[in-house]
């Protein structure tokens, strides 16, 4: 069984870097900066006012935080939030978008995925997402865009009633130049599976296939 979902996105260098290394060190306002993957919610002005972390903690932001990529009011986005704590207050510093790759039930055929750089994979404490840190090679190109997706390749049921899902991360370079590497975070929702199920994610990297396994 092979089913997949694709979405296109333009690889850009975000004004907000996806690493704490870009912030000042020492005893500055960013010295105690924290970073979490979150489901962040906007208010009627499309500014972020609250978030729920991958650990299940709710954060009420001391001040509303706007981002150019978040344009819808009263909407929940997948994001990486940078913030500091001032006593009990959560002070937002910056927020960057995290791309979501749902496992679609629509059939799709595709060639072997183009290789990509892979850094790490982990599952949220809430078990709602599998997170991947990728290293995509890109360059200045105004016509072509890379694509990412997730293919559900197989499901095996056990006598205990649990399922084992085999997923494949899909990638098409689409002739985008590979001059430099962009650090990219994506999340795969696990809503298709249940507690006790196992999920394998197969990733075609420049160094060969990488397999990451998780249990819900």
TrEMBL record:
Keywords: Signal. The keyword Signal applies. InterPro entries: NigD-like_C_dom_sf. Residues 1-19 form the signal peptide. It comes from the Bacteria. This is NigD-like protein.
């Amino acid at each position: 069984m092979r089913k997949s979902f694709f979405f296109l996105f333009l690889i850009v260098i975000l004004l907000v870097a996806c690493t704490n290394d870009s912030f000042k060190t020492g005893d500055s306002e960013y010295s105690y900066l924290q970073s979490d993957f979150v489901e962040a919610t906007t208010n009627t002005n499309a500014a972020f006012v609250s978030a729920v972390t991958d650990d299940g903690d709710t954060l009420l932001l001391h001040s509303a935080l706007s981002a150019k990529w978040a344009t819808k009011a009263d909407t929940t986005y997948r994001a990486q939030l940078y913030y500091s704590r001032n006593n009990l207050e959560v002070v937002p510093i910056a927020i960057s978008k995290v791309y979501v790759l749902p496992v679609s039930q629509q059939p799709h055929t595709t060639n072997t995925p183009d290789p990509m750089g892979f850094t790490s994979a982990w599952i949220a404490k809430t078990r709602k997402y599998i997170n991947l840190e990728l290293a995509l090679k890109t360059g200045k190109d105004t016509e072509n865009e890379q694509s990412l997706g997730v293919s559900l390749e197989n499901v095996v049921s056990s006598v205990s009633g649990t399922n084992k899902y085999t997923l494949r991360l899909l990638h098409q370079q689409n002739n985008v130049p590979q001059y430099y590497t962009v650090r990219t975070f994506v999340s795969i929702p696990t809503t298709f599976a249940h507690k006790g199920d196992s999920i394998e994610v197969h990733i075609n990297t420049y160094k060969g296939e990488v397999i990451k396994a998780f249990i819900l």
